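hey can u run this one w/ zinc ion bound, need the structure tokens asap thx
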Amino acid sequence: MDSDEGYNYEFDDEEEECSEDSNEEDPDDDTLEVELVDPVVAGGERDECGETGGSGLGPGQDEEDYRFEVLTAEQILQHMVECIREVNEVIQNPATITRILLSHFNWDKEKLMERYFDGNLDKLFSECHVINPSKKSRTRLMNTRSSAQDMPCQICYLNYPNSYFTGLECGHKFCMQCWGDYLTTKIIEEGMGQTISCPAHSCDILVDDNTVMRLITESKVKLKYQHLITNSFVEYM
Ligand SMILES: [Zn+2]
Ligand SMILES: [Zn+2]
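ok here u go:
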């Protein structure tokens, strides 16, 4: 397992090769590129007028009374990545999986560690709706046993070569087009972030951040997803 795997939100417009496993583990790619957006006020309302510090105070209030810290989206993401990194120093999972585990425990690191070392990892991972990464290689081996023939996608029923199919560790594979459409609908129309699951019927395995970043090409959708994830993190900061 590669504990150095980065937690990458990518916001470039370059076309990414989406062939299977091509960019899942790249220890050198530890960059963190984030577009700066409106500041978000931790623990408070979104600052509509864009003012920071004490300028929005009412009469009779001192600057010291202003208890909200204004953070940019980038700073929030840094806090989040730092939180994931701290946990990963101990439990060493892919960062994208640790994010899901932490989300499940409302970003309570201690609670996660406690459960993690409690021993019943299968129960923990199934509760968090992820596949235990230590069992990953077996699943992957099973799924890469490919056929040369085109096969039908179970969503759109169109035939595509095996290389055009992708999926989560649960093993359910769908064509890239359907994945992109599915994720875009969830993110843009339904405003879902950390609760998007595999499109397969009755599969509850959650989509991880790297998969979203890999399968979504539109930066607008990526940015919305990032907001949804960081906003849920802010709630528990
Ligand atoms: Zn399809
Ligand atoms: Zn599935």
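The beta strands are 40-41, 70-71, 151-152, 159-160, 165-167, 173-175. anyway lmk if its weird
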